[in-house]
Fold each of these.
Amino acid sequence: MIKTAETYHVSVLLNESVGGLDIQPDGIYVDVTFGGGGHSREILRRLGPGGRLFGFDQDEDAEKNIVGDARFTFVRSNFRYLKQWMRYYGVEQIDGLLADLGVSSHHFDDPERGFSFRFDDAALDMRMNKRAGMTAADVVNGYTEEQLADVFYLYGELKQARRIASAVVKARQQAPILTIGQLLRATEQIFAREREKKEVTKLFQALRIEVNHEMAALREMLLGACRLLRPGGRLSVITYHSLEDRIVKNVMRSGNAEGRVEQDFYGRIQSPLHLIYNRVITPSAEELEQNPRSRSAKLRIAEKTE
């Protein structure tokens, strides 16, 4: 088990994402993906004595990295409950929110969590919250063939989703699929050799998203953030794949996850947010060299309108 904040996860786009919050010394900020605490520590470094920071994480392992600072409050919860927890703490408005939606390297490197296909004998788990909820094994063995195909297509964008689902169902009829190796062997004949790693990555992504209800949680969190942000408050979000990036982009441009644009009488777009930059921010060549896992990261920053 990886236990230290330094090795838990390397913070991606650290200066760009925290800088995009335009930290006010006495402001109230939320880091909804606390993880190893790298972004939170940088926010605290820029806050004054009167500032406050709330850090969300549903993973009990993240508690080992809690920041010893009176200005910091750790919330062990899924960030989809952002509004409820802010109400609990008596916070009506916040000055900024940061989200790094990537899975921590800690999760990929811990065989017990079942996030990586590098560990053949590891259990198919993939839960961010180890205390509750279904596992990837529950999905693989309990969903119908049609349900599996939908998951693989919608969340993995796999063109051969139906063939993969059929292979999984056929394999589990012989014996339950409980380990990563069993899942890989059940599907290995489908993926072309030269594309195998990329396709398997998409397969694992699809299962992880389904297990953790990631898309629904992201929509709820972003809409809650839109309501909580004070006028002029900032939203800084790092995404890693097209599904989550599409939702973030839609909310920042239109105020809803579907991207429905509403206009006033004069044709002006009505949205609670406006983009600070019209382009996405990506890691520098130097950061990519130091942290190859950041290569797919995209940062978008928006500000709450008056």
Amino acid sequence: MEIQKIITELEYKAVRSSGAGGQNVNKVSSKVVLSFDLKKSQALSEEEKILLETNLVARLTSDSVLILNCDEDRSQLKNKEIVTKRFLEIIKKALVVPKIRKATKVPKSVIRKRIKDKKNVSDLKKSRRKPDY
């Protein structure tokens, strides 16, 4: 994965932000919408594209486009930086391949200890019973 090449493929769009903010909201387009077309990407290999598609299936549109919004700041430039960082974090997390878990055998000492503890509890409960005459 080449980060610089991926960043050049990102598409940004400035939109008017919603919510409170008075005249600033009505005049300034500070909200940034980032879109990244996974299928058209040249920076990712085919294996990486498949991995991203499976891991980000809930975030992708039907055309395999990842869309992120940011309207946290009043500055369009800061919103662009925030949404780019968020995008890179999402991509890095999605590209991590989890380790395959190897099944291990339970040690004999652990089995012996468990059986010994069960025997102790059994003896304790036997000692609480009324005597047999």
Amino acid sequence: MPLYEYVCPSCQLNFERLRPMSGADDTPCPRCHEVARRKLSTFASFSKSAEGDIAPISGSGSACNSCSASSCATCGL
């Protein structure tokens, strides 16, 4: 099951839920029980080469886009 992110329009709680794809849009808020809106999830994906170099996967939304370091080892990613 995929992990989805939600925000409640009533109490503004941000939370995550493992939900089947067929039930991703109808999740109640755990705090106030109003129907929450699904958020657009953002995450970073990295790949490790045979030599051990770490590089962001193209188009993954990596946070490294604005980083001026020459290697991800500087920021720990």
